[in-house]
Amino acid sequence: MKIAVIGSGIWGACSAYFLKKSGADVDLYDMWGPGNSRSGSGGASRIIRLAYGKDKIYSELTNKSFKFWEELSKKSERKLYFENGMLWLVTQNDNSYIKNSIPAINSLGNEIIEMPVNIAKKKYPILNFDGVNEVYLEKKAGILLASRCCKKIVKEFQKIGGSLIIGEVNVEENKLNKGNGITINNKKIKADKYIIACGPWNQKIVPDFFNKISYVSRQEVYFFSIPNNNNDNYKIKNMPCWMDLNENTPTYYGMPFHLNKGFKIAYDERSTPFDPDKSDRVPSPKLIERTKKYIYKRFPGLKNLPITESKVCQYENSIDGNFIIEKHNLSSDVLIMGGSSGHGFKMGPGIGELVKDIILKNKKPPPFFSKSRLINNKNLSQYYNSQIKYKSEKKI
Ligand SMILES: Cc1cc2nc3c(=O)[nH]c(=O)nc-3n(C[C@H](O)[C@H](O)[C@H](O)COP(=O)(O)OP(=O)(O)OC[C@H]3O[C@@H](n4cnc5c(N)ncnc54)[C@H](O)[C@@H]3O)c2cc1C
User: Fold this and answer.
1) FRET partner for 182 with CA separation of 20 to 30 A, picked from 88, 210, 293, 374?
2) Is any atom of ligand 1 closer than 6 Å to the C-beta of 318?
3) Neighbouring residues of 187: CB distance < 8 A, sequence distance ≥ 6
4) Fold (CATH) for 2-387
């Protein structure tokens, strides 16, 4: 079977790899290449963790992905994965997100444990626990080196005979029903099956499919310098990734010093629209100030240390924060993957395997990822609500 995968972000790359490994003839297309700076999968790093509230499907997909990441990291000349754990700081009164995660994590043979705040204070002396009611630690969690992972998967895909083609693919959605409409340089891409995994560009490439069910939002990410005395408490061996479940500010999260870049911090606030082709990728002074205010309080040792690097990137959100994986209504030969909603990197391998089964074994995509669930549903999901309660957030 000939398969064309459009988009070599983590979803397209993993899908192409698993399909190729199962014997299909696969061509992978991308405008700028795997893990490019503008893609959702670009940049230095992403968190992998199992806690997903009630949404067990994500814990399962993540759990499936761990093995792949560990093996890929082992055979890579450069490290791809650090298992340094994930610390959850519950500063709001509602701990249901964590509590609801426990059964799924335990059923997968892993654990998330509550750590008394006084113990956490001793273990993580760089952290100011003011206002933190509860602390939880997931041991099986850590950092994936994002852009590197994409490049390595595509290398492995090429090693087993897959082709990577660089160029802009165009789709005329109204021609899909006749098996046409997908071209590169004005030439039809001939395949039996097509997979469209263009992340933030999905809305441009198949606008009718994504009409009113997704939007793209702007995110800023910063690396802060750590003290010159190279305090080991800021480093991977002593500090897990962390997330602050907070009611009054955006959800801030971060990772310890890695890749010699700095102490990473970002926020999860899906409210500012972004155009991946037109919007500037320069951080805003206002948001930098807001972040400094937060980080200087939570990590006082970073006070007045400069930002060493920053990045503006985008989430491709579905309106309920859950993924969308479904065949196009005009052609059952075209599978659409989208709505990764700022949390799709970690489970790329699990998603890739799922797509392989949908294409080669005719497996039905999980109803949880169906497009139909979004029609007439303007409510944000439980998962989305329970993390984001920032008061000024506008719904788009
Ligand atoms: C700041 C930030 C932090 C995040 N943190 C986490 C995290 O900690 N953990 C986590 O799991 N996830 C995280 N995510 C989310 C995760 O990175 C994304 O969900 C995931 O990378 C999306 O992958 P994708 O393959 O769907 O899209 P993309 O990576 O955007 O890939 C789409 C690809 O399609 C290509 N393309 C687009 N249009 C065309 C065209 N016309 N022709 C050819 N090629 C085309 C692009 O070049 C691109 O390479 C984060 C995202 C951001 C932005």
Assistant:
1) 374
2) no
3) none
4) D-Amino Acid Oxidase; Chain A, domain 2 (3.30.9)
